[in-house]
């Protein structure tokens, strides 16, 4: 069996694209180029062709079979799925894939996560509880109170085929690795030093044996300036974590994380879910690069020739800024939630050891 070589198709593909462009009055200027294509360099021709293909010209992609228009495609059925799992967690996103089946059994998938030929603009997606973007990405708001006890749902219709629709329930997931980050910001980077100026060349003398004169010396190159030091990383704020158990047939953890005037709520399934709380000190900014020394000027020609100037010294690289301090973390948990403390992970590099307090914690909402 011969080996398939995609690159061998580039000239053919390039000619097809140029042919379609030449036939389109919008690209009148390309028509003239196309008539002389045999006399032009293949690389230049392909560059023009793929420039138009890469800017996302849908009609060209349809002509090449890379995309399809559903209003010109017979459809027998339509279905939808979430390839990354059956549900979505609060604050998270998940791509939607729609599968279209033609009467002859041929299957087409949507672009994007489906890596297919069906254009999302040919579909209409309506959603409840969750939201869906025009590119088929399903998302759920971060606040668990909005979606608790509810079931997300999307309906996909095809305007050009009004008799077809796909329905998909989207459960709300809590067995997810949530992250609550209150770490300090990075320090500012130091500015690089400026390069030294080059020395000027020496003046020319004479090499005439009857009237010799020395060439002038080249001047020295200027020194590069030092790079600036990076700024210090910012300190993380103190963080308070409160946790209680939401009882039921499948217990869940209610968690509130508060810091710097902000409060974030989480609902976590301890069987597979977790929450990582970060209050790390911000990393220091990187130091600026020292400027390069200028090159010395060359000596002028003559008898004897002038001396070349010395190169300037390179500037010192700036030092990285110091990291910020980690914020203190205090975890207050209800006694009933104690068996599930392993679902909470803490990180506060550069800060004091986290503190755990056991005391009654009322429902957080």
In short:
The protein has 365 residues and is α/β, with parallel strands linked by helices.
Notes on the protein architecture:
With 365 residues, the protein is α/β, with parallel strands linked by helices. It folds into three domains: 6-61, no CATH class; 70-173, Immunoglobulin-like (Sandwich); 178-184 and 232-284 and 323-358, no CATH class. The chain contains five helices and 17 strands. The chain has helices at 10-23, 28-35, 42-54, 58-63, 144-147; strands at residues 77-81, 93-95, 97-101, 107-109, 124-128, 131-132, 137-139, 152-158, 161-170, 177-181, 239-246, 252-259, 262-268, 274-278, 329-333, 344-347, 355-358. The strands form five sheets. Strands 13-12-11-15-17 form a five-stranded mixed sheet, with no helix packed on it. It has a three-stranded antiparallel sheet with strand order 1-3-4, with no helix packed on it. A hairpin with a 5-residue loop joins strand 11 and strand 12 (252-259). Helix 1 (10-23) crosses helix 2 (28-35) and helix 1 crosses helix 3 (42-54). It is flat and about 105 Å long.
